[in-house]
Amino acid sequence: MTPNSIESSIDKTNITGVILAGGCATRMGGQDKGLIQLNGKCLIEYVITLLRPQVGELLISANRNQAHYAKLCTCPVLADTFGNYAGPLAGIATTLAQAQTDYVLFVPCDSPCLNPQLVERLSAFMLKVHADISVANDGKRMHPVFSLWKRHLLTDLLTFLRTGKRSMHRFLARHSLAQTDFSSTPENFLNINTPKELTTLNKITK
Fold first, then answer.
1. Which domains can be identified in the chain, with CATH numbers?
2. pTM of the complete model beyond 0.85
């Protein structure tokens, strides 16, 4: 992994942004994480605000409370077409199939500290190393759900899912991957998986 340049990047009008909100959130007692309140706002509202200016179109992947999400975002809300809460790859496949742009950017619904240059930096490094997928790396680990994909990967993803496989890391390993350096801002990838993490983030974002 090497530091990336943002001198050139993909035109945002050719990028669809997708907020992944389709999980069952077992560690949060089954709550719909995108709708959890943080300082008086739903978690997904923070993500919408930070992501919308970075992309041409916006979609939400959600398997419940779809009318609520549609009202918050005023954009299409799509349920998974694979299985029942089959993981992030199911939401990725569904939205890749619906996107009208050559590139699709994915972020989770429970990360309210999204980097305002996330898309630009992911796309610049993707172009630089001629990758099919660009994934954020905070200096310690890769964050696969913060990633930019070429839409043509849908064909291989459908083949992968039809075998019953659901591992994001296994699918990424099938393609050329750019790990984009965000080691200077690891806080951009804070998310909510447990009530304790919600309490911690509540203090940080006040």
1. 12-205 (3.90.550.10)
2. yes
